[in-house]
Amino acid sequence: MTILVTGATGNVGSNVVEQLVNRGADVRALVRDPAKASLPAGVEVVQGDLLDVDSLRGAMKGVSTLFLLNGVVADEFTQALIALNVAREAKIERIVYLSVIHSDVYVNVPHFAGKFGVERMIEQMGLSATILRPAYYMDNEITIKDVITGYGVYPMPIGDKGLAMIDARDIGEIAALELVRREQSPAPLPLTRINLVGPDTLTGASAAAIWSEVLGREIAYPGNDTAGFEQNMRQFMPAWMAYDMRLMAERFVSDGMLPEAGDVDRLTTLLGRPLRTYREYVAQIAG
Fold first, then answer.
1. Of 51, 58, 66, 52, whose CA–CA distance to 3 is shortest?
2. Rounded mean pLDDT of 32-37?
3. Which of 2, 40, 241, 259 has the greatest number of C-beta atoms within 10 Å?
4. What is the rounded average pLDDT of the residues 142-164?
5. Strands of 10-108, DSSP E
6. What is the mean pLDDT of the chain?
7. Confidence at residue 177, expressed as pLDDT on a 0 to 100 scale
8. What span, in angstroms and rounded, lies between the C-alpha atoms of 102 and 266?
9. Is the pLDDT reported for residue 36 higher than 90?
10. All structural domains of the chain
11. What is the DSSP letter of 23?
12. What is the reported pTM?
């Protein structure tokens, strides 16, 4: 049967597709513009949108398992609910949903609260699903690399509590493993939640220290200026999204993103190898 992947051209989604193809899965990718989709050979590409019910119905025809990934957009919550309702209508009983860690804690952060609402729908409607809850993506560091190397500062206000950052490649592989596990199960499996975390818990100061070691020069951590962070974000994203990011950063500072006991061991066992470290990732993108 077929596994449908949404968000297939993004950072996580493309890793999911690649991992599924490597495992011999029959993969269908839902994309807005097939002409711009660069996906592995053998992947069936279908055009559609998560708000276009007709295209969703077509994309889900003959699908046995769904990977649902929604981008951070103003109507993310509506997109997810529509997709899950169409999947239910299509009798898809095997689902992996990409949520976020602490979605039930960061209740004032719009894209976290929206994901928690989706989790509630999955649970209350009895959908058979794995809910993946990733922490902060190491891959976000790509967007600040030039600031770090050019100005000698680590600009993300991630605070002193710590974030268990995870590599998107690890997220993609874990998601693929869960999709295959559900796909190959003779019967739908019960609901499960998995925190996706990295092996290290990084503070602003410790992240800056790792950059300092990798680059061989001092990188400073200027502190937790979330208001300044919002203003910087407004230069290349809508005001509502920049404010959403500020609210998230404020929760980084007040709460952190800490793993629960056993999270790292569970993921290491699932992957059959160690999780990628922040130091390894920084060394990779620093060149």
1. 66
2. 89
3. 259
4. 96
5. 26-31, 44-47, 63-68, 94-98
6. 97
7. 98
8. 18
9. no
10. 2-134+167-196+261-276 (3.40.50.720)
11. T
12. 0.96
